[in-house]
Specification:
The strands form 5 sheets. The chain has a 7-stranded mixed sheet, with helices on both faces. It folds into 4 domains: 78 residues, no CATH class; 172 residues, 3-Layer(aba) Sandwich (Rossmann fold), CATH 3.40.50.261; 146 residues, 2-Layer Sandwich (D-amino Acid Aminotransferase, Chain A, domain 1), CATH 3.30.470; 140 residues, Rossmann fold (3-Layer(aba) Sandwich). A hairpin with an 8-residue loop joins strand 13 and strand 14. With 600 residues, it is α/β, with parallel strands linked by helices. The chain is built from 20 helices and 22 strands. The longest helix has 20 residues.
């Protein structure tokens, strides 16, 4: 076949997987949509945000293709024995639990837990950790609602956006209209979020007006979801819910979820679309998704647009005006608050391909801000919104925040915090001069940036957590699992000194570098290594731990928990090393030991 269009004409595929690098992924997705492939699964992470905004504007004009991802491990039918993605097959087993997850590693943990519980899986949908996933939690829940092989659902969310709140509203409605609803068990990662940072996944951050992890947990509980605090608890939690509802069927072939060998196609729209077989792949050398501009640079960008902007003098009530992403509407939005608190913030979505006047009501925004409704004030607000929109698109920003005051019938910007999409530079080579100058300025002004930048050069995401009482250094593979590890340690009575995701392509050298960075923190009294092997092999991580222990002459105790791919071999490597490393299979036992050692 010479191209995807010929493949569609001759082969008529139901789905395509897009495995090309982030710099090529947007074009491949667009081509698949144009060719009308029914299901398009994109696994690449770090696709530039504004490329994804363009893709979503295209998706809204059609009804023949569904996109899953990007930044997704893909989808897999354990019953139909079909995978589009890269999930680790050994932990999967045919069964009747449907799994929806933002995080790859947390979904693998959930799979392993349901396999251990003897439940198995029906359909697993990795919606991905991107800012703008093609399929959201609510849409995936709707698919599993109608899937005859699914008897219970595991839902894995995290900080960032409002998709979990949308899911909670859907679940409430589902329970009200369904006589025997399928039980749902959930988990939210990121309770111990480091505000102002992106926690590994491109979409794992909270902006004004978005709920935090605790709010999401409460909303899901109120909707009737049983919440767990670690994915290893999904199996027992789901089994209890099934037993309580007396929905477990007999093991006869007629009623068993194992009895069918055909793959269901309900995840896509039963219409059509393809992909482009790019082969050249650029190495991903950094995982940090955004970059902060110095305030002086942000104010200068506003002045270039003719906006009155200077630092706050202390006079006048300040209001919040920002541009960000409405993740539910999948488009940019104005964020406005009459004060500086996020609790008062309201979102006003707009369509980037149409004029602002046709999609935004300046009067409504001014009213919510509490501004004087004079013509001069409204004209000033329109000018400021237009300037912010221009900067947002021209500089490929993901969040532009300003504080404004009213002065003599006009608005003045007295503070500005602009964040640019790092993927536009790292993946596509765009906005180079602005990114490089901002990175240099941040390196000089913030000593913590140096450690984060060094880690990023090795494909590691490292964030130093602020508590002076934190004593546990963490080393984890996968952003979702890393967030949950920090959360679970807090529940166990400990405090993590850092968030560290080794990245999906971790090697023994990566593990050694991770140890080196973690151990520079003088607060660390114990290192907790929590690994679930998917693409990352458990034995390779174990060799990295042993190498780091020897070559770095580690003086603090190390607790290691390895599960997943090659877990037995990894545990054997630790056991036979002869080093004082504490190896565990279960998370709770490992976490308890790490907390105990942190208090010595």
């Amino acid at each position: 076949m010479t191209d995807i269009f010929q493949a569609m004409e001759v082969l008529r595929p139901d789905a395509t997987g897009i495995y090309v690098a982030a710099s090529q992924a947007a074009a491949a997705i667009e081509e698949a949509i144009e060719a009308e492939v029914p299901l398009v699964v994109a696994v690449a992470e770090h696709i530039p945000l504004h490329d994804m905004l363009r893709i979503h504007s295209i998706l809204k004009t059609q009804s023949k293709s569904r996109l899953v991802g990007p930044n997704s491990p893909g989808i897999i039918s354990s019953i139909g024995k079909c995978r589009i993605g890269f999930q680790p097959l050994p932990c999967f087993s045919p069964g009747h639990v449907g799994i929806i997850a933002k995080s790859g590693t947390l979904s693998y943990e959930t799979v392993a837990s349901t396999t251990r519980a003897g439940l198995g899986q029906s359909l697993c949908v990795g919606i991905g950790g991107d800012i703008l996933p093609g399929t959201d939690l609510r849409e995936a829940l709707s698919v599993l609602e109608h899937d005859p092989d699914t008897e219970a659902i595991a839902l894995v969310g995290e900080i960032g956006g409002t998709l979990e709140m949308d899911a909670a509203a859907w679940i409430k409605d589902y329970h009200s209209r369904t006589k025997s609803p399928k039980p749902i068990v959930g988990l939210i990662a990121g309770v111990q979020e480091a505000h102002g940072h992106i926690m590994g996944h491109a979409g794992a951050f909270t902006i004004p007006g978005e709920p935090d992890a605790k709010s999401k947990i409460q909303a899901l509980q109120d909707a009737g979801v049983t919440m767990v605090d670690h994915p290893a608890k999904f199996g027992d939690g789901i089994k209890r819910r099934l037993e309580a509802q007396s929905t477990i069927q007999s093991s006869s072939a007629a009623s068993s979820p194992f009895s069918t060998g055909t793959q269901r196609r309900s995840i896509h729209t039963l219409l059509r679309r393809p992909t482009r077989p790019h082969t050249k792949r650029n190495p991903m050398i950094i995982q940090k998704r955004t970059i902060y501009l110095p305030e002086s640079t942000s104010l200068n960008l506003l002045r270039e647009q003719g906006i009155n902007a200077s630092t706050y003098s202390g006079s006048g009530a300040r209001h919040l005006l920002a541009i960000g992403i409405d993740r539910t509407a999948r488009c940019p939005c104005i964020i406005a608050s009459p004060d500086l608190s996020s609790s008062s913030a309201k979102r006003f979505p707009f369509t980037p391909t149409r004029s602002l006047e046709s999609t935004l009501s300046t009067d409504r925004i001014a009213s919510h801000l509490g501004l004087h409704p004079s013509q001069s004030t409204l004209a000033s607000l329109r000018s400021l919104i237009q300037a912010l929109t221009t900067i947002f698109h021209d500089r490929e920003a993901f969040f532009l925040s300003t504080h404004i005051v009213e002065r003599l019938g006009a608005l003045k910007v007295v503070s500005a915090s602009f964040r640019l999409d790092d993927a536009a530079y790292r993946s596509a080579g765009r906005q180079a001069s602005l990114h490089e100058s901002a990175a240099a300025a941040n390196l000089l002004s913030d000593p913590e940036v140096e450690a984060e930048t060094e880690a990023a050069r090795h494909g590691i995401v490292y964030i130093r957590l602020p508590s002076p009482q934190a004593r546990i250094g963490t080393l984890v593979n996968g952003a979702g699992l890393a967030m949950n590890t920090v959360d679970a340690l807090a529940l166990a009575g400990g405090q993590a000194a850092n968030f560290l995701d080794t990245g999906g392509k971790a090697t023994s050298e990566t593990v050694k570098k991770s140890f080196e960075i973690v151990l520079r923190d003088p607060r660390v009294r114990v290192v907790f290594v929590n690994i679930f092997g998917g693409l990352t092999l458990g034995d390779m991580i174990a060799r990295g731990v042993v190498m780091a222990f020897k070559e770095l002459e580690v003086k603090v105790p190390v607790v290691v928990r390895i599960r997943g791919t090659n877990e037995e071999e990894g545990q054997r490597v630790i056991r036979e090393s002869g080093l004082p490393i504490f190896a565990f299979d279960g998370f709770e036992e490992a976490a308890a030991r790490a907390v105990e050692l942190s208090r010595v």
